[in-house]
């Protein structure tokens, strides 16, 4: 298991909600391996063709992500996992917004033309999700995949059609 892969607890919580193969097009590659590849790609931003071999053929990972994005599987997975986590009491639905999260546009504050200096990254090592329950970590990771799928769909809808 590599860094960023689904933990055993996350996998056990996610597995009941995954679609099953209809067996008409052959057997699907292991869902866990493919989902780990998708999570790796979303987390690192690597090109599909540059996915490490441990996730299987890059095209399999890409096609599963594309298919599940198009048919709403990612959205349904996120909703089901959120519902289970909420039922278990692992989601805090309180929202707190302050100026450190929502900033005014630079023109609203009279900011200078120079961008602010970049913050030093302390790195997100193995303790990245310490204190989170498996539900919270899984919901956060699925939400990231859904955001990426929505952004990809929006980019595709905004791009001009290709002519042959």
From TrEMBL:
Name by which UniProt lists this protein: Insertion element IS402-like domain-containing protein
Domain annotation Insertion element IS402-like: ranges: 6-77
NCBIfam families for the chain: transpos_IS5_3
Organism this protein belongs to: Kitasatospora saccharophila
Region named Disordered: 106-137
